[in-house]
Amino acid sequence: MTRLALFLLLVLLASCSLFDKMRKSSFTYPGPAGQSTVELLVPSGYREKQTLTDSSGNLEQLYHYRGGSILYVAYLKDTAKRYQFLDTGLHIPRQLINGALVYKGMHPEWQIWKEARLGNFRVGYHFVSVDNEGRFDSAVNYSALQFKR
């Protein structure tokens, strides 16, 4: 019985340390049926949260971190807008259970990028160090699963 209690305590402590490094947020966008909001999970420690709308009506929310890392989520009216400069002929995406396509790669400076795409939605990150890859991957995966076509 004591081994089970110790195991459960370790699981609880491990899960608490993961949630200390993540924070809940939300993204409100002008969907086809009016304003909609989705829940996001973002790595804690961002220094600035920025919401922008460009001249095409694309809405994006950016989270800026020390060292230049950026997490972004966007609802695009113009789906030709690119956040990652990737050749979809060379990058084979992984597909999430909701149909989102996930692309991932590395910048020449050994910094990682990732983007999930589903319909008009984009969620991803730029310039993330290998040390922070797990947190940012979890944020993108969780957030991408919140979107519906």
Note the main attributes of this structure.
single chain; 149 residues; alpha+beta; seven-stranded antiparallel sheet; two-stranded antiparallel ribbon; 9 strands
Description:
This protein has helices at 2-20, 133-146, and strands spanning 22-31, 34-43, 48-53, 59-64, 70-75, 94-95, 101-106, 112-118, 121-128. It is an alpha+beta fold and 149 residues long. Strands 3-4-5-9-8-7-6 form a seven-stranded antiparallel beta sheet, with helices on one face. Strands 1-2 form a two-stranded antiparallel ribbon. The longest helix has 19 residues, at 2-20. Mean pLDDT is 86; it is low at 3-19.
The SSE string, one letter per element, is HEEEEEEEEEH
In DSSP terms (H or I, runs of 4 or more residues), the helix count works out at 2
Taking all Cα atoms into account, the compactness measure Rg is 17 Å
Q: Separation of termini?
A: 47 Å
Class based on secondary structure composition and strand pairing: alpha+beta
Main sheet: strand order: 3-4-5-9-8-7-6
Q: Round the mean pLDDT to the nearest integer and report it.
A: 86
Classify the helix fraction into a percent range.
Answer: 10-25%
Oligomer: single chain
Shape: globular
Main sheet specs: 7 strands, antiparallel
Q: Got a strand count? A: 9
The low-confidence parts are: 3-19
